[in-house]
Amino acid sequence: MSPHTSSPPPSKSESPKTFKLATRGSPLAMWQANFVAEQLRARGHTIEIKTFKTTGDIVQDRFLHEIGGKGLFIKELEEAMLAGEAHLAVHSLKDLPARIPSQFQLAAVLKRHESSDVIVFSETFGKRCGLNPNTLVSEGILRSLGPLTVATSSLRRQSLLAGSCPDIKTVPVRGNVNTRLHKLNTEGWQALILAEASLERLELTSLPSHRLDPNWFVPCAGQGALAIETLANSPAYEVVRQLECSETRQAVNIERSVLARLGGDCTMPFGCLITNDKRHTNHLLARAVVLDSDGNSAKSVKEINRDSKNIEFALEELIIDELRRNNANGILARLGIAVRI
The CATH number of the domain where 311 resides is what? Predict the structure, then answer.
């Protein structure tokens, strides 16, 4: 299924009396599952939440790209749907591969939460770094804080830091959000990078955290959005479509399509964010970056009028064209990805 196409309507079949929702068991995943379940229950549907352990949850001693990518957070949930143990699954969209198997569909994409990354400082460093609580952290500000050890297992985040802040040492960290926060204050690191939406959802916004300027620190495709996956032609389709946000769907379609064109998945050092252009109310603004492990990058910043014909494909082409002109192919080659865009 092309990332540009909406999911097809299901064939006529009898809906179950209770819809079973599959999720991972981490606190963040459970928040997401309950968030969706509550909205569906408010619309008169009976929802049962079922938890499953995924390979990504079990294997904690290696980078995700070393064990198959973030798709390992969804495999068992998809298998549960194929086995009839669940009717739908809730995912952070950033955890989904750019293309999903044909047996499944993204039946709904919910309104996006915050899409940015945040840097969370340890208790001791946060007290002495001198940043005001609402400071937006740019490249220059982060460099000015001096040598730091920053925890993250994201190749995109590591590469962005390598290209901008050479005094920063990155260390890998896995586990749920609370596990990572505990390690931050026990492992001697100065900072940890997380998705802002995770802190928002878990009500951890009082932590000593600061948003990283998304003009520089471009989020990964789909970050901040929740998606509901079902089997193709599932009776759950019409139920979950009630939660669809067309504006978010349009944005993430473009982000994920560019990622697919680059031949990557959600572990590739790539960022893309489509937002409303604050300078021109009827325009979409796109920022994209593809990086290698040393922080070398090809960037694209494009805008397009919302009234443009075939806007999703048109903006995707503008982004790809600028990435190509800025030597994205050379960077892809260094990553070992044989793609010519």
Answer: 3.30.160
